[in-house]
Model the fold of this input.
Amino acid sequence: MAMKMPTQQGNYIDTFVKQMFGRVLVFVDFLDNYADPKFVAEIDIAKTAPAPTHYIGHKGDERIIDLVFQCPLKNGVGHMMAVIVFEHKSKNLKEIPQKLHKYISAIWDAETKEGKKVLSAPYFIVLRTAKTPHRGKYPTMADLLPKRNNGEPWEHVPEIKSDVVDLPAWDFDKLVGGAVLRSALGMLHKMTGGAEDEFPEALLPLLEIDDEKQRIELTKELLGFVDKAFTAHNRRLDKTLVSRALKPIFRDKEQAMRKTFFEELEEVGEARGEARGIARGIARGKAETILTILRAKFRRVPRDTEKAIRQITDPIALDSWAVQAATCQSIDEFAEALQ
Done:
């Protein structure tokens, strides 16, 4: 049964990809099988490690949200910075060229501040999980800039190349790599390619994992992703499907595994509900503190400003607005900054 694609699907897919590909062994396995062989030949792939997470632009709005790994060069003169960019939309990748420029600028700015004399060279892979494969040429920065009279792009247009791995275009049976990588890619293939009820097939590579504890943990992660995907499509993950997925992996232990999975799923749901309730309570308290400060200073707070403050749910943002409330010189100054 194929499901209609949800309008918003990035969050749960991003979380899953980061969980799976954030493992160094899985990331290295992905590079080894799907990256440009010329790139792989230049790096010491055994020494690949997660990059620092502080690559942030001057205003804090250029933080790299995709996976970044440092890959030492075999010749010992520096690093390649490998970035997997996740693209889940059905668009034609038109936002990618500008994103790549922003990313490498943020990386180089951070490395310059650290005093590095040799900056890292970029290597970008776009992992695309849209429902249909990309057709035509890949977008470039030149597409976004003015053209010359003859229609050609201006000289000196900066272009950053990337490799595009277009997941739905693959034949499921031809996925390569280790068991964890094939399971992760297979699950993405099933969850984004319109064959969601066929996800049990994606678990079969886990049979190659001898460590039962690791096999159980990976199965829970993969099924957790399936549950989120079904929820995004307004469906419930039923026990029959889970049984079909678990039976070839755990055989006589399938019933116990299924029971454990659904019990833990229920506990996680309850915990999330409680956490959201607590977070809402904290946010309401912080909002009231801001309003109390403003009323003490200026007596009256306009309704629009009060409404805007109450709509903020991020506790860190509310702390920042509390400081703004304490230091602003007028209610108009505060309201203008709030906009």
About this structure: The chain has two domains: 10-145+153-233, 258-338. The radius of gyration is 24 Å. The first helix runs from residue 10 to 21. DSSP finds eleven helices and five strands in the chain.
